[in-house]
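Reminder: ligand-aware prediction takes two inputs, not one.
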Amino acid sequence: MSTKTAEQRIHLLPENIVNQIAAGEVILRPASVLKELLENSIDAGAQHISIWTEEGGKTRIQVTDDGTGMSPIDARLCFERHATSKISSLQDLYRLRTKGFRGEALASIAAVAQVELFTRRPIDEVGTHIVIAFGERRLEEPVRCNPGTTIIVSQLFRQLPVRRKSLRSTPTEHRHNLQEFLRVAYPHPELAYQYFHDDVRLYHLPSQNLQERILAINPTFSPGDLLPVYEQTPLFSVQGYLLSPEKIPPDNKENYLFINRRFIRHAGIQQGIWQVFKPLLHPETRPLYWLFLEIPPNEVDINVVPSKTEARLVHEMEIRYMLASVVQKALARAFIPFPSENFPDLGKLPSLEGFSAAPVSPQAPEVKPLQEAPLFSTLPRSPSETPAMLIAGRYLILSASDEGAWVIDVWRAYQRLSYEVFLKKRPLPSQGLLFPVYLPVSPEAYSAFATWKEILASYGLQIELREGKEVVLYSLPAGLSTTLAQPLLEKLFSLSRENPDSIEAIAWDETLPRLIHSILEAQRARSFTLREAQDIAERLQQAMDPNYTPAGQPIRLFLSRDILESLFG
Ligand code: ADP
Ligand code: MG
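Here is what comes back for the chain with magnesium ion:
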């Protein structure tokens, strides 16, 4: 530097060099670029995300989303170091809901590659087109483009020959890209994705639930191979699936642990889960699971490494043991016999009473656990006495006797039960949503929700209002499928527009079941696992009307001897 004198040998590095150094930590290979771009698209509220890579991302990575887009000013700023719209104070770090917060990804990528940005907010008429290469702006102009954002990254590491050479073969880099993709595709099944590599479409995933997403990505698994996990403890809640041990590929190395919907590597927790599976697997085989832990954000620190894939937990040991026990319970429920001497030594575990009941995140309301079953009970439920058969994931054949058999249309039974949930005596017990649902709302709808808040809570629907523009749904009444959360919130939103001033006049006892019914009527029949079907059949026995759906369609039929005889002529 020319301004240096003998007294001053220390100087601040030019920004471009700072960014290149930072990029060394954040951007290791094409997959790191892909991860950062995908996280930004999700943070921007995208519903559809498309990905194109060429040569394993070594020559080109493109991510296109239909999220919020950026104003011309933000588009210019987003490449600055520490430029972020996601946090503005240190406290925000402890109530983080976005994936990004460090504000360095785009600056880092732009320091080591060429980045082309097209972005437009829906309210703007024209968008912004910016090209920036190796820290230098090459172009900035208004452009006609779709609302949302497209970012194209090319020539990665062109100016860093050592890094460039350290890139592996196209198939290897491609594999890393796919891995990063799956790590965001699983935790956001509600988003639709397309993935093209060298112009071949590898994935085309519609908006779906977690089970459907797992099956779409792994077409060789069937619903019965996925053992559900659900538990709420004072320290965390967990939801997800374990792959049935006999289905685990022997060379499996990958597993999916998410904390607050962020993919995390946590050796302690993963080891704990592996221990439970060990007696059931080949010694080298790792279990395969998709587990989503929700931990109050103020008890997790994810600012450990720049890639944000590691976490420090305040209650690490407790969570590790409790989670192992939850997994063990889920396996036991699947009736897999396994030797009890291999259970973790539960006698040595801290007792649950010893834990202080953790405050859930500052804004999140307290939510009652769904199942009251004690956490450490490991006894398998005895298999149901009556042999049952499920046809097409929908028709359950039950209680065969000399007189005939019951056939239950499980989808219709499910409609009936969902409809009746809101007819029970209030207050209804609620079930926390692992993935709270967010809905941006107009000011009028916002005030409608504010007046409804208490009454909805008595129906097991706990909502919070944020910043005058967003409603968050945290729980549903127990017994209602979590896939109904989003559409229900949307229905309530349209209700708020239909009845802006007669809010007090709404007869909730009728309205809520009606909303659920209209949601289910509009949906395609879903298919069930045998266990789900049996569970629904059991609950149907308590239904107010087990015979007909709210629309009057029959739910169950008795296939009597007479009918069979007449069928066979
Ligand atoms: P961070 O995600 O940590 O905030 P980034 O460097 O990844 O930092 O992004 C900087 C900012 O650019 C983000 O905070 C966001 O405001 C904006 N941004 C980046 N990608 C997108 C996108 N796909 N859609 C809308 N805004 C985006
Ligand atoms: Mg980011």
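The longest strand covers residues 430-440. The pocket of adenosine-5'-diphosphate (ligand 1) is lined by residues 36, 40-41, 44, 65, 67-70, 74, 78, 83-86, 100-107, 149 (CB under 6 Å). We will return to this case in the review session.
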